């Protein structure tokens, strides 16, 4: 019949209350009552080991005061309904099977190496920021990289140089207004004013009229500048190209 809190039943042995074992306990299954949880408690840590038929350790779960450690070939976290894999980890890769990965830390997510993903987006009404404080930020895709800001502005800033490069195609700027600020303005000089420098310097009325229409020109070295419409080239070389006026 048993003794004290230990009862022998048809289904096995039943323990009532808190039980303490001073030596190893070998059982096939441990169940709690239907109306109470199963609690395993220790003053140091709780370790669950799994061994094969040769006695070799194949899996271990340790719950300690500072950390929870799992040592196994593959670790999985599954959903309660359907058994969908929410998280899995092995020596080769880590898979997150949830519909959305949310990082709530103020510093965001830090990746030491490359990140491969088909879609990155921010929370609704929140800004999305991709930043590399001390190195460069590279986005590559075999069929193109698409960046959309449906309800806001798109801003790309850097400390040194910003390169837009297309190896086989073209760079297409399509907008109602395209502004290029801080461009140097070329000086206007005509043949008439250069022939009569003495008269133009003495009389302000004989100076060339102020130009209100400019051409955006590019030098062979890639520099852009504004030149008065119809004026001669102010670039260092003679083969400048005017884009539009």
TrEMBL record:
Residue ranges of coiled coil: none
Gene Ontology biological process terms in this record: cardiac muscle tissue development; heart contraction
Entry keywords, A to Z: Cell membrane, Cytoplasm, Cytoskeleton, Disulfide bond, Glycoprotein, Membrane, Signal-anchor, Transmembrane, Transmembrane helix
InterPro entries, sorted: Sarcoglycan, Sarcoglycan_gamma/delta/zeta
GO cellular component: cytoskeleton; sarcoglycan complex; sarcolemma
Protein name: Zeta-sarcoglycan
Entry's family note: Belongs to the sarcoglycan beta/delta/gamma/zeta family.
Principal cellular location given in the protein's record: membrane
Location of the protein in the cell: Cell membrane, Sarcolemma; Cytoplasm, Cytoskeleton
TM segment ranges: none
Membrane-related topology note: Single-pass type II membrane protein
